[in-house]
Amino acid sequence: MSKLRVAINGYGRIGRSILRAYYESALGGYDQVDLSDKIEIVAINELASPEGIAHLTQFDSSHGRFMHKVSVDNQTLCIKDDKIQLLHQPDPALLPWRQLKIDIVLECSGVFSSRDDAKKHLDAGALKVLFSHPADPDVDKTVIFGINDHLVGADDLIVSNGSCTTNCVVPVIEALDRHFCVRSGTITTIHSSMNDQPVIDAYHPDLRRTRAASQSIIPVDTKLAQGIERILPTLKGKMEAISVRVPTINVTAMDLSVTLERRVDIKDINQMLKQEAQSRLSAILDYTEMPLVSCDFNHDPHSSIVDGTQTRVSDGHLVKLLLWCDNEWGFANRMLDTCLVMGKTINH
User: Fold this and answer.
1) What is the structure's pLDDT at 31?
2) Separation between Cα atoms, residue 311 and residue 84, nearest integer Å
């Protein structure tokens, strides 16, 4: 099988994390395989300067220095022996995907979310598009790797990888529902700051987001409940979610409360989740009882880590869980996983 020819459109937090995760896969940690045998990153489309792209690839405030030397030769990003073409085109319809023989575009700009937006990449010559964020309902599929990626077929040209929070909470909810039957639930996402928040107070259509990111815990809108329903339709109308942003730069916690049909205790819940993390969901779920804090999960490639020390059960049916995820690194690894799944459906 020939290598998948991949382009990254939008080289922000997720785009850069994807590139780093691609190269770090050669280290083989957490059962990873060397993706350089399966994927070739051919091009990056980003409006920033080549010098800025190279600098933020080499140095990262959350994930440290890059493992390889990075340089720029005209409009080429040079890493090891790889030469990645740099493009600076704001209109996806004008990108040279046909000439570059791009199989899959990883759409990481955060600007586009509709089928029509993705179709511009297809019309430009790409074979498939994978959104790095929740997309509109008219895309071919929303995929949570490890849960429903087996449903991806050749006709799924435009796919969303969901969100970091959907990837974090869905595997746990699915396992709880499978073992104990979920009656209803609520979720509070405790999310690190993002680049749509100002350093100091500044105007924004969302008045809460006018406030300095480092000074407050800031409630924000979330469509997490709708995202869960897309993947687990039997839970439609049974889940609700809220979200707050907190003054940390990376790693997110999720406070999940569910009411179960079956009567359980803490041991039942933790034992089940620990077993799932060691078997069926081992590629995406981890379990810990160590006394850890958020920064300890920085650069963790799992979609979700259950903190078993925080599990609580009330009256045998109401269960509260604390889940962690690196909202950048874990999600970037899932983008690569889903990209490989989509690639297997391409007939060259």
Assistant:
1) 57
2) 46
